[in-house]
Amino acid sequence: MRRLSLLLIGLGIFVLGMLPATTARADSDDDSITTYTVTADVAKDGTTSVKLAFDFDFGSDEGRGPYLTFPLRQEIANDPDHWRMLDMSLGDVTSPSGANTEVSTETQDGNLLVRIGNENTYFTGTQSYVVTYTIRGLIAPNQTTSGLDEFNWNVIGNGWEIPISNITATVTGPVDVTQSACFIDGDTSNPCQADQRGDTVTFTQSRLSDHTYLQIVAGFPAGTFVGAEARLEKRFWIGNMFPVTAATGGVTAVLTALGLGALLRRTRRGSRDQVYLGLTPGVTPAKDQQVAIGHGTSNAPVAVQFTPPRDARPGEIGVLTDSTADNVDITATIIDLAVRKHLTIEQQDKKDWTFTRLNNPERLTRYEAKLVDKLFSKGSVVTTDDLKDSDYAGLLDKTRERLYKRVTDELHWFTKNPSHVRGVAIVGGIGLTLAGGALGLALGFVGWGLVGLAGVICGIAMLALSNRFGARTAEGSAVLAQAKGFELYLTTAEADQIKFEEGIDVFSRYLPYAIVFGVADRWAKVFEQLAAEGRYVADTSWYVGYGYGYGLGFGTLTSSMDQLASTMSSSMQSATAASSGGSGFSGGGGFGGGGGGGW
């Protein structure tokens, strides 16, 4: 933690060096401080008066002056809830050598940044500077290990960007010094020189490389300093902003339960499908028959149906089933159009297909017609590789939109457009999640941040349930019952239970529906058995390629259709697409620190 704090201080120095006013010159390779002398007088209340005198050698390049950083707060070991504050007041800045000593300061990320010099005034060679300031917070009273009141200071922080030579630090206290020590980088095995005489101790070090700190410690009898304890400030982090207590946990639990309860009630009511009361599921009223409409249950049993709902296309059934127009529904629509002789599908290799438009007078629905026209907008032949062109951008999205309008506005299967209802729920869920997070952050400053979690949980739940806010009409529920009955047939029928229709290739005709229901493989296995027994010959003239057209079987054909769905989707989407604690005599770093360099 101590090293992290010092690292942040160094980062502050780097940031200062990157500011527009200071970027005209970076530290030269040969910049250095040739003399660094610190005199510190410590009063009984812990306030330290500091005089820092140093000679700055600008090396081979001219420079405006030095910059310094001073930490104003530090982490406290074993106390993550508070900052140890270093109260500092900058005094006079002078130059015995006559250098410009204009001062600009900035507080940034818990550091005081001090820049000395004028932007338009440059110097070469060595210039002398004297900086005075007071600082409070360097005393650690009555330490357990030493039994002393310790003055524990990183007199030079590891944020310095340049080497420092001929270092002298003199500390004078209100009474005689009892014990003293000095360490480089907090390492007790790497001490510097300490000369202790009466109430004064002088520390010396010949040289420090850049990014190396010097810790000095002077111990005084316990009780020497009165009221010298460092000032503490609240430090906010996740542990104290979002504490789990009986109060915060209880309130959060209650609010979460109330929010989820209201959400579930809304989804139950809003997603309750309408039904024709008094009629068997799947049956629609006769013309002019008056039938009451109410709400039913989604668990109502359905009867096996050997054909799909009348005039209901596979893509439409896909949307009706899960309230979502997805890529499978669009692929099933294209395969259905091929089966109905509006186009042919030819597989060139494992991942490439060619579509050829056929002349078919059958009238198409609006979304089917728009899909075919867009698919063949550049000619009567198109490949999956062509679909990556930007001209096909939006083909998927537009087809989805038209499918939603088809089932809502033309077929009247839904009370509201499922995509619109889901969109409102998604926006509401995101808004509730963000509001909960913002509320948690705001309340975190008083230790009640956990309460915001209720909003976050409810928002996430709304997102998860976004597909359950819409409802089907009575007509939609009747067609859904028929579709479920047909799905039951495709899922359970054995080879000897297949109902054949004259003039219709049952395998191909119902394959797009099987794809929508996710049972295409099973449907293919049934017809493989029939073909093996010589009881059925399929008409798959709508498809030529690696699959059934080359005699590889029904299963290979359905596998090719799966790959086709993936490839088409991919193609069209491509088109769119410093701490403290413990005795200072144990090393490890002291209070304060900072760094600097030239600009």
What's the gist of this structure?
With about 600 residues, this protein is an alpha+beta fold. It folds into 2 domains: about 1-235, Immunoglobulin-like, CATH 2.60.40; about 270-415 and about 470-575, no CATH class. Helix content is about 35%, strand content about 25%.
Q: Could you explain how this protein is built, in words?
A:
With 599 residues, this protein is an alpha+beta fold. It has 2 domains: 2-235, Immunoglobulin-like (Sandwich); 271-415 and 471-575, no CATH class. Helices cover 33% and strands 26% of the residues. The protein is built from 13 helices and 26 strands. The chain has helices spanning 2-18, 238-241, 246-270, 314-322, 327-339, 366-375, 395-410, 418-444, 452-464, 474-492, 506-517, 520-532, 554-575, and strands at 32-42, 47-57, 66-71, 73-76, 79-85, 87-94, 103-108, 111-116, 126-136, 139-140, 148-156, 164-172, 179-184, 187-191, 193-197, 200-208, 214-221, 232-234, 274-276, 293-295, 343-349, 352-357, 381-383, 543-544, 579-580, 595-598. The strands form 6 sheets. The chain has a 7-stranded mixed beta sheet with strand order 6-9-2-1-12-16-15, with no helix packed on it. It has a 5-stranded antiparallel beta sheet with strand order 10-11-17-13-14, with no helix packed on it. A hairpin with a 2-residue loop joins β7 (103-108) and β8 (111-116). α4 crosses α7. The longest helix has 27 residues, at 418-444. The two termini are 30 Å apart. The relative contact order is 0.15. Mean pLDDT is 85; it is low at 1-26 and 547-552.
